[in-house]
Structure formats: structure tokens, C-alpha cells
Amino acid sequence: MFLSEPITYKTDFEKIVESYQEKVRNTCFRYVNNSEDADDIAQEVFVKVYESLDTFREEAQLSTWIYRIAVNKSLDFLRSKNRKKRFTKLTSIFQKVNDDEEMVIAIPVLENPQQVMEDNERKEVLNWAISKLPENQKTAIILSKYEGFSNKEITEIMNISLSAVESLVHRAKKNLHKQLSSYFEKHL
Amino acid sequence: MNKKEKIEQEVEKTLAMFDNKTDLKPNPYFYTRVKQRIEEKRKPKYSVAAILKPAFFTMLLVLNVTTVVWYTNTDSIVTISETKTELADILKNDFNLDENQSQSLIFE
Fold it and tell me: Looking at the whole model, is its pTM more than 0.95?
């Protein structure tokens, strides 16, 4: 996951993109639930990496620094989107995820289609519940549960203490449980 | 199973989707697009404002300099004529000259 050799020059940039693009794209996707927006944000992340490579002091790991940029860019995107949303009519709680089949990886033929459909619906509900979390809880739970970072890695990305990360993850899980319970109480 | 238990079951099944996440398909053109964005940012942007701003400030500077020069010249003429008038008065008083005599000495 981490590049062990030091950054020598901007010729390393292609290697950096190659190494981190999938993880960055998917991290951004967890925030925005839209493949085009995720790609857009991820490209901006690497442009920022390119522009700032010269000033990167290697105080943190390269990966930590890149994911931090990805988190910040994703949150900026959501804030900007929310600002625009205030002036438009809210037509649906869910994002248009169902229609975007390109985001779904190849599904094994042996799987039960009914199960797959139920799982996709549950994923949408989960994404909706995550979108309702405060920013810090959202980030902590995405990095922890979706991207599989350890709490220690999350402290470096978010630049907060270990206890703060643990608290955020705990509160996020509690809030998710509350949101989902409320949702299923209305829809079951 | 009562409703509460059913809700709890659904909540747990939904939370389990964290382990069944959907990843984006790899994008083979991703690096190309990143490079394109970097190149676009490097290009100088010639906007109307970028051309007009220096032109405006240059014009403002020229106007200011012209105004100062004109004002300075106008003042010196007034000063000279005021000085001459004062001198004429001084000569008139000191040498008991009449108006015409003192003025003819200064304003010739």
C-alpha cells in the first residue's frame, strides 16, 4: 500500500497515480455515490498532488497525505452540492445509483438475483444513512468500514488523536443504527 | 418475530453491507485525464480582465502624472505673477514710486 522509496522527481508521479488511483477513486465514491463525480474529484486530488509534490516534506506518509487530500476534496464537493441543493426541490432521498450499472462490478452468475437486488437496495439505504452523518463521523466510518484503514492510519489521515477516532467510529455506528431503525420502522 | 425484532434484523443486514461493498470499475483513461487537467492549468489564460486591468492602471497613472504636471505649471505662473505684484508693491513703498513706475519696472 505504501511507497517505500522516497519521492525523487515528478517522473514518479505516474507511479503514484498508478498505485493510488483505485483506492482514491473508491474513497471519493463512498462520499458521493456517483461514479462520474467520484472520478472528477479523484482527478482533482491527483492534480493537487502533482502541484504540491515539490513542497511535500515527507513528514507524513505519502499515502496518508494523498488520502487526506481525497477526504478534503470529497467533503468540499459535498458542501458545494448541499449549498446548491438548498435552492432546488428535493425529489428523492436516494441518489440515482440504480441506473448507474457501470459502478457494479461483475456479479457471479451463481448468485441469487433476488438476493443481489435486495443487497443493492440495502447498500442504497446504508449510503443514505451515511450521508446523514456529520462530516467527521462520516469520514471516520468510511475510512474504517469501507476502506479498511486501521484506527492508527485514520488518526494520521484525519490528523486527530486515536481516542478521537475511536469515539467518532463508535458514534457513527450508533447514529447509523438509529437512522436505519427509523427508516425500517417507516418502511416495513 | 415481532416488529422490533424484524427491524433489528434488517438493520443488521444493512450494516453487513459494509463487508459487501461495491467498488468502481478500473478506469483505463484515468491517468490521461489527470495529465490533461494538469496541462490545462498550465496554459496561460487570456481573459479580457487580464488585458484591461494593466491598461486601466496605466491610463490612471498617465492621467495622474498629467494632472500633477499641469497643476504644477499653473501654480508657478500664479506664483510668479503674485510675486511680481508683491515686488511692485515693495518697490512702490520703499522708493516712493507711483503705481505706473513700479509696475513698469517689474512687468516689462
Answer: no
A91: its cell numbers: 425529489
Residues B30-57 have a mean pLDDT of: 83
Q: A69 or A11: whose pLDDT is higher?
A: A69
Tell me, yes or no, whether A85 and A121 share the same domain: no
Give the orientation angle of helix A62-85 with respect to helix A151-158, to 10 degrees. Answer: 70
Q: Which residues of A touch B (CB under 8 A)?
A: 14, 17-18, 21-22, 25-26, 29, 35, 38-39, 42-44, 46-47, 50-51, 102-105, 119, 122-123, 125-126, 129, 145-146, 173, 176-177, 180-181, 184-185, 188
Is residue A169 helix, strand or coil? helix
End of a domain among A54, A89, A124?
A89
Record the cell numbers describing residue A159, joined without a space.
490528523
- Alpha-carbon distance B78 to B85, whole Å? 10
User: Which range marks the domain in which residue A58 is found?
Assistant: 1-89
- Please name which of A135, A124, A132 lies closest in space to residue A176, comparing C-alpha atoms: A132
Whether the predicted pLDDT of A147 surpasses 70: yes
Residues of chain A contacting B8 with CB distance shorter than 8 Å = 181
Q: How many domains does chain B have?
A: 1
- Do residues A124 and A180 both lie within one domain? yes
Domain that holds residue B104: 67-108
- pLDDT (tens digit per residue) in A75-100: 999 999 888 776 665 554 454 444 44
Of A48, A66, A89, the position where a domain reaches its end is: A89
Give the ipTM.
0.77
